[in-house]
Write a structure and sequence with these properties.
single chain; 96 residues; alpha+beta; 3-stranded antiparallel sheet; 31% helix; globular
Length: 96
Amino acid sequence: MQAILFSAEEVAKRAYQLYEKGIRKKVETEENIGKMVVINVETGDYEIDQTGLQAAKNLQKKSPYARLFGIRIGYNVAASFSGVMERVSNDFRYCD
């Protein structure tokens, strides 16, 4: 199966839409805060782990050509280099 061609912006937009429409309420629990959720933007499948690496590998086993996007649960950035990662408020929503 060939990958669907999305720009980086389209991948991010689709991932945030999927996250807000249903994934978020399932995964945003105290034990998952700070973990990575990796989303297959074509199917809506997702996996969670500490760094996102194993989650991405698991999703790629199911769909080798999948477009994946990672979101750090409860934060507005996935990683920070010499900065501070701030928690998002419960009313955070991705804006189109």
